[in-house]
Amino acid sequence: MDKIVIEGGHELHGHIRISGAKNAALPIIAATLLTPGWHTLYNVPDLHDIRTILSLLATLGVVWEKIGPGTIRINSADLVSCEASYELVKTMRASVLVLGPLLARMGRARVSLPGGCAIGARPINFHIQGLKKLGADVVLEQGYVEAAVSGRLSGGTVYFDFPSVTGTENMLMAAVLARGTSTLKNVACEPEIGNLIDMLIAMGAEIEGRDTDRLVVHGVERLNPAEITIIPDRIETGTYLIAVGAVGGDVTLTDCEPVLLPALTEKLRIAGLELQEGDNFFRVRGRGSLASVDIKTMVYPGFPTDLQAQIMALMIFADGTSFINETIFENRFMHVAELRRLGADIKVDGASAIVRGGSRLTGAKVMATDLRASASLVIAGLAAQGVTEISRIYHLDRGYENLVEKLAGVGAVIRREKDE
Ligand code: EPU
Question: 158 and 282 share a domain?
Fold first, then answer.
């Protein structure tokens, strides 16, 4: 297993190219199950989670090939199975995204129930209830969701108690091939869902309401293969903006979409970062002194839960106290104990964390617990005095393409080593 070793205190200067969004690529890859033929996906990030979903699709009979940097072709013409096994689903919850498209195309799907994970219980009851509303029989047997329908799914109305991201994506992929019209209410409108909708429309689906909390899907009898470019990863973008804020420097992020980070940019400007944004770039300058800001995570366009750990790391260096309220996941403060090992003054009270800023961090050995928690440790390590060693970095490999290389390229003293 590898670890990351960081010598803190070096400012960041230069350019970082932002990769395609993991959470957009995953549902789009799943959507290729909806119809046979060669689909082409551009700007696909080279990440562990992407390899996992491609391995899962391969077990179903899907073939794929890389035909250029970030470009893959996928064909699901010869499906041989409708089952996502526990062994694969337990390594990546997003595997549940095959449920909707498999059921829509094949009339059945058997997908292992994902268990809880480091950030919360994360049930999939909305996915199951939604599929039932479209006429599927769904039972839970031996840890698997078994869904079946004779003939096609039928259009229906689905109301989400909470706007679930992958829940919305699964229902969209189920509804596009249903007989009749489906109305999906109180859905999530994260940009990654917009990217999936663009893919589905390119495939011939009829969907109204993109970027709103109400989607109307007119089911079609068949879809066709399509091509799509994966949108830039807004969470990777935000992570690097925050890193520059914590360490200082002057960095331009290219190939990103600043418009996708409305809440973060507002907070970073109040905190005192200089941000310049264009259609596809961000220039960020960290000036040293930082003001504290309060954060409440919310569904898009609110402050993303996937940046909560990282902004907490930034607030350690701010003047004053910051209140951080996590409203999406019930257990997403695993990074706090590790940040404290570096010297941070953070208290957790239920769903809130209170960060007393102004601590001087000193390097230590810490452990990554989930993807975004790991990113917060990298940020803290870059700004700490001395050497920080982060173990269990396979979490980072799931969602950040070439993180070590990208940071080293702008002057961070960071390397990967074998963890003995
Ligand atoms: N929820 C339920 N029942 C459901 C579905 C969700 O109660 O059937 C609850 C969850 O437990 C949670 C809330 O609803 O409390 C929101 O969860 P959501 O379903 O929106 O999360 P997700 O779809 O499982 C995606 C991202 C996450 C990101 C969340 C929130 C993907 C593959 N994953 O997860 O990304 O944190 O939306 O924005 O898109 C990450 O990239 O590090 C990551 C965890």
Answer: no
Dist. CA 169 → ligand 1 center (Å): 11
User: What residues form DSSP beta bridges with 7?
Assistant: 387, 413
| CA nearest neighbour of 177 among 140, 149, 146 | 149
Measured distance CA(29)–CA(246) in Å, rounded: 35
Residues 191 and 247 in one domain: no
Dump pLDDT digits (tens) for 119-151: 777 889 999 999 999 999 999 999 999 999 999
Asked if residue 55 and residue 145 are part of one domain, the reply reads: yes
Q: Which amino acid is at 78?
A: D
Kindly give the distance from the C-alpha atom of residue 119 to the centroid of ligand 1, in angstroms, as a whole number: 10
Instruction: Give the model's confidence band at 41: pLDDT under 50 very low, under 70 low, under 90 confident, else very high.
Output: very high
- Write out pLDDT tens, residues 323-372: 999 999 988 999 999 999 999 999 999 999 999 999 899 999 999 889 99
Range of the domain at 256: 2-18+232-418
Is residue 395 domain-shared with residue 247, that is, in the same domain?
yes
Q: What percent of the chain has pLDDT over 70?
A: 100
Picking from 172, 201, 229, the residue at the C-terminal end of a domain is 229
- The CATH number of whichever domain residue 118 belongs to comes to 3.65.10.10
Tokens encoding 104: 């829509």
What's the order of all strands across the beta sheet hosting 214-218?
Answer: 157-159, 181-185, 214-218, 206-208
**Sheet of 387-391, strand order:** 365-367, 387-391, 2-7, 413-418
Same-domain check for residues 264 and 388:
yes
Task: State the distance from the centre of ligand 1 to the C-alpha of 135, rounded, in angstroms.
Answer: 24
pLDDT value for 116: 67
Note the pLDDT of residue 121. Answer: 78
Pocket of ligand 1 (CB under 6 A): 23, 26, 94, 120-127, 162, 164-167, 188, 305-306, 328-329, 371-372, 399
Together in a domain, 174 and 138: yes
Distance CA 322, CA 305 (A): 16
117 is catalytic: yes
Catalytic residue chosen out of the listed positions 82, 117, 189, 256: 117
Same domain, 245 and 367: yes
Q: Which of 197, 229, 261 is the last residue of a domain?
A: 229
